[in-house]
Amino acid sequence: MIRVVVSKMPLDVAAETAALHGLGGGAVATFTGLVRGDDGVGELLLEHYPGATKAALEKLAAEAVARWELAGAIVIHRVGAMKPGEPIVFVAACAAHRAPALEACGFLIDRLKTDAPFWKRETRGEEATWLGERAGDHEAAERWR
Amino acid sequence: MMLDVLYFAWVREGVGKGQERVDPPAEVKTVADLIDWLGHKVLSDKTRLRAAIDQQFVPLDTPLAGAHEVAIFPPVTGG
After folding, report:
1. Partners of residue B74 in chain A, C-beta under 8 Å
2. How confident is the prediction along chain A (145 residues), in pLDDT tens digits per residue?
3. pLDDT tens-digit profile of B42-56?
């Protein structure tokens, strides 16, 4: 089972996780990314490349399923405006045992950060700033190549 | 060779639009050539730019041959 969603709608982590519990695997690993409220951030805006985004995430999910023989994988990314504390991204993997589930979960979030066309803009008061790339993100993604 | 050029994030804001259809001359062979030919001020520092041809990420020295859609944008920052 592969589920990939790019949506403005709020993310229901419990419902998404529960969907992996009936697949017959012995392990489900999940990662939830939350909007940080660094230095008084009031709003985070997520822009993406409609048409390319979902295909990029589906490719990642399919790669994880094949590499770790997963029973299921979920990748969900929100777009649009969000407030600090809200879930922005969710990835999950269901496998026979914990090691492949945990590794696949790490792969999905690390590679999503470098391989999928999303851009973040933080608003503090009246000032909006587009985020720059983080060097550590590329190192994290490279370890899965 | 008609091309749809898409812009995202601060590149889109700097260009002032999200998309334009262009017809570059034959000497525009690569994504980098296209960026120079487009001539938008916000595109002047190519080290800050990334690109995709027909929705696949590519290096800026990639030939445009056969491309229908070229996207120009900052490094991605999702997750």
Report:
1. 119, 130, 132-133
2. 999 999 999 999 999 999 999 999 999 999 999 999 888 999 999 999 998 999 999 999 999 999 999 999 999 999 999 999 999 999 999 999 999 999 999 999 999 999 999 999 999 999 999 999 888 999 999 999 8
3. 999 999 999 999 999
- The three-point CA angle A145-B6-B7 to 5° equals 80
Number of domains composing chain A? 1
| Chain B nearest-CA residue for A53 | B55
Contact A120 B75 (CB under 8 A): no
Residue range of the domain that includes A25 = 2-142
Q: Tokens for A1? A: 């089972």
ipTM of model:
0.95
Residues of A within 8 A of B78 (CB-CB) are 46, 48, 77, 89, 112-113, 116-120
Candidate from A49, A89, A132 with C-beta closest to B79: A89
Domains of chain B: 3-73 (3.10.20.30)
C-alpha dihedral, A100 to A103 to A106 to A107, nearest 10°: -90
CA distance A43 to B2: 38
Angstroms from A69 CA to nearest CA on chain B: 24
Alpha-carbon distance A112 to A67, whole Å? 16
